[in-house]
Amino acid sequence: MSDDTFHNDRPNAWGCWGPEDEAGAMNHIGPEQVKRAAGLVRTGEVVRLAQLLSHRTPVPRHRAGLQHFMGRDGGDYAAGAKRPGGFQFAEDTVVMPLHIGTHIDALCHAWCDSRLFNNYREDSLRSTSGATRLGVEKMPPAVTRGVLLDVVAHRGRPLEAGEVISRADLEACLSAAGLQLEPGDAVLLHTGWLATQADVAEVDFNTEPGIDHAAGLWLAQQDVALIGADNYAVEVLPFAPGTVFPVHQCVIRDFGIPLLEGLQLEPLVRTGRHEFLFVAAALPIVGATGSPLTPLAIL
């Protein structure tokens, strides 16, 4: 049970779905949101929004990269492995951080003042057992309306390092698309950053364009279920002076909204669609702080 002795004096969604809730803003997605989103399918085209994963996938210096090992392959049979009935197979193992490539941040990923979303204490995370509260396995699958906000089109160019996306920018993108945000939406922000970093030899994870705290708070107060972007942290880096991951604190910790990071949005942008059926599901790894995943836009 969450500890109610701590008072969060910032705008928040604590207690909105009860003191035991661990799904957060994903609660905004119900049967009506699913049915409405399914009605957006027109052509049946499916667009994958995930980066390819390999040992070349960039990660910050404090994380190990992806390691891929073949346990059995054609070489084993060439060396004399048995083939009962002529049957052969290959298998492999992958070791990787869960926050790599296109991934989702669970609600236990970020917190402040010793409290996580919904007033859970930081001692609910242990290196020996993982997260006993708010782990990624508590996150329901997302089947909802996706809304693409094309900030690149709004600015007329890909955004630069440290460039802020404001609430006014988001509202302008919505206006250009002729859309309004609705509860349960998955909001995807196109900054152009991932595409501009494709040929960079050593990616700098300390600087990128993204939303500021005011924009993140505004999105949260629209009752969206997910916020994602084609950058590495969704929020602008470096942070505003005197702050540290202010959007993560606001969105994940205060409002229980998972962040989708590292989205591959260029294929979706090329379709010209700003509203679509969005589908994504995390790997249900018990006690995990996040998960790689393959979001889909179904047009």
Write the layout of secondary structure elements.
Layout: H1 31-38, E1 46-48, E2 67-72, H2 74-78, E3 91-95, E4 103-105, E5 125-126, E6 130-131, E7 142-150, H3 151-155, E8 164-165, H4 167-177, E9 186-190, H5 193-196, E10 210-211, H6 213-221, E11 226-229, H7 246-254, E12 259-261, H8 266-271, E13 275-280, E14 290-292, E15 296-298
Parallel strand pairs: 7-9, 8-10, 9-11, 11-12
Antiparallel strand pairs: 1-15, 2-3, 4-12, 4-14, 5-6, 7-13, 13-15
Helix pairs in contact: 6-7
Helix content: 10-25%
Going by CATH, the architecture of the largest domain would be: 3-Layer(bba) Sandwich
Name the structural class: alpha/beta
Count of helical regions? 8
Termini separation comes to: 41 Å
CATH superfamily of the largest domain: Putative cyclase
Helix and strand element order: HEEHEEEEEHEHEHEHEHEHEEE
Low-pLDDT residue intervals, each spanning 5 or more residues:
none
Task: Explain this structure.
The protein has two domains: 24-58 and 97-298, Glucose Oxidase, domain 1 (3-Layer(bba) Sandwich); 65-96, no CATH class. Helix content is 19%, strand content 19%. It contains eight helices and 15 strands. It has helices at 31-38, 74-78, 151-155, 167-177, 193-196, 213-221, 246-254, 266-271, and strands at 46-48, 67-72, 91-95, 103-105, 125-126, 130-131, 142-150, 164-165, 186-190, 210-211, 226-229, 259-261, 275-280, 290-292, 296-298. The strands form four sheets. It has a nine-stranded mixed beta sheet with strand order 1-15-13-7-9-11-12-4-14. A two-stranded antiparallel sheet has the order 2-3. A two-stranded antiparallel sheet has the order 5-6. The radius of gyration is 20 Å and the shape is globular. The termini are far apart.
